[in-house]
Design brief:
The complex is a heterodimer.
Chain A lengths: L5 H8 L3 H23 L2 H17 L10 H19 L7 H7 L1 E2 L6 H18 L4 H11 L5 H8 L3 H22 L4 H7 L6
Chain B lengths: L3 H8 L6 H13 L1 H19 L3 E2 L4 H46 L2 H32 L4 H30 L2 H4 L1
Helix pairs in contact in B: 1-3
Classes of the chains: A mainly alpha, B mainly alpha.
């Protein structure tokens, strides 16, 4: 996880806009990624990420310095995206918009791989969009940000047992959606991907 | 058959111990439903682990700075409107309180008499002021109108010079501050 120097946060809290710009520069990808995974739309994710940083800027005085800044700003982003989702029904991910409006985090070796990757990403995004907002947020924090159950509980303001049950429910739902989307490929998939539980 | 304990073993993020593995293997040998769950969850978990972070389009920070400026302007405007509303409410409250106090303190008869007295006093003051001004003008020295005209011409000349100087400055130096 990205760590921002405490003096930069302190300077930003004192009203230094340049220091806050540095913070935005550091956290733009994690915040945008969370918004994109939550909202499944690049344009809406951009708006949500900007609103997150604006809310962060307004609430800097309420930020507790003992807590990692990343957790705090991602918590704002998650709650904002959950609110947005509750306000309206979301469309499914648009692959063209995804390819045009966003940049992958690292270089893609060739167009064929890029297509396969984007297709699998799209499928993953579609599966994510079937989950309820809080379940999705918990899953995103677990797999993209490698948060522990305690960290997820702090970020989403829910109990650890609620996080556990939401993660379990999300995993089962994702597996069922995958099964419904790929009814023929179960045997082959099983041979390629043995369960980590076994 | 109760699948729940096996589902929990399949979907857990923790490593299973030997006994749990044996228990699950024995169940999977006879349960198609849990076999499918293992297969599909393995594929999904693999996709989740290999998923990359998505970065915003280039220039996000610049776009945020524009957004920040817009939001700051909106916040200031909102604050000004709020302040005006509060001042307005306070003034209305004071006015209403005064009206209530006034009507509670005086009877309707007293209010009518006071109103008539006030307006008639106002009319009398206006008439007296007009008469006083006319008397002052008549008793003034004959040089007063001349001094008045001189005064007006003097101020007009000062304003004309200032205006000419301003035009000259803009014509020769341009609006450099705005260009910067």
């Amino acid at each position: 996880m990205i760590v921002v120097a405490p003096d930069i946060v302190e300077r930003a809290q004192k009203g230094d806009e340049h220091a806050y710009t540095q913070i935005v520069e550091s956290f733009q990808t994690p915040v945008f990624n969370l918004c994109f995974r939550m909202l499944s739309d690049a344009k809406e994710a951009e708006d949500a990420a900007q609103e997150t940083f604006w809310r962060g800027y307004q609430g800097l005085n309420r930020y507790d310095n003992s807590r990692p800044f990343g957790t705090w700003i991602l918590s704002i982003a998650a709650h904002h995206c959950i609110d947005l989702q509750r306000k309206r029904k979301l469309p499914l991910a648009d692959i063209d918009a995804y390819m045009e409006e966003t940049e992958p985090d690292r270089n893609i070796p060739n167009p064929e791989t890029a297509l396969l990757e984007s297709e699998s990403q799209l499928q993953l995004q579609q599966m994510l969009s079937t989950l309820p907002e809080l379940d999705r947020a918990a899953l995103i924090f677990r797999y993209w940000y490698e948060y522990s159950e305690e960290e997820i509980s702090q970020t989403l303001d829910i109990s650890v047992s609620a996080v556990k049950s939401r993660l379990h429910r999300a995993r089962r739902k994702m597996a069922n959606v995958y099964l419904a989307q790929n009814p023929g490929g179960q045997k082959a998939e099983r041979m390629r991907n043995e369960s980590p539980a076994l | 058959m109760n699948h729940q304990p096996y589902e929990e073993l399949i979907l857990t993020a923790l490593q299973l111990n030997k006994a749990e593995k044996q228990q699950l293997s024995a169940h999977l040998a006879s349960c198609k439903r849990c076999q499918h769950l293992v297969t599909s969850w393995s594929a999904v978990e693999s996709a989740l682990h290999s998923a990359k972070s998505v970065a915003p389009a280039t220039g996000f920070v610049s776009r945020f700075q524009i957004y920040q400026q817009t939001q700051t302007a909106i916040a200031h405007r909102k604050q000004s409107i709020q302040s005006l509303i509060y001042i307005g409410i306070a003034m209305i409250a004071v006015f209403v309180a005064s009206i209530i106090w006034f009507f509670l303190s005086y009877s309707p008869g007293e209010i009518i008499v006071s109103t008539i007295t006030f307006f008639s006093g106002l009319m009398r003051s206006f008439t007296d002021f007009g008469a006083d001004a006319l008397m002052l003008f008549n008793s003034a020295s004959p040089s007063v109108p001349f001094l008045l005209v001189i005064n007006i011409i003097g101020w007009a000349a000062i304003i004309f010079i200032l205006w000419t100087l301003t035009i000259w400055r803009f014509a020769h130096q341009g609006v450099t501050q705005n260009e910067q």
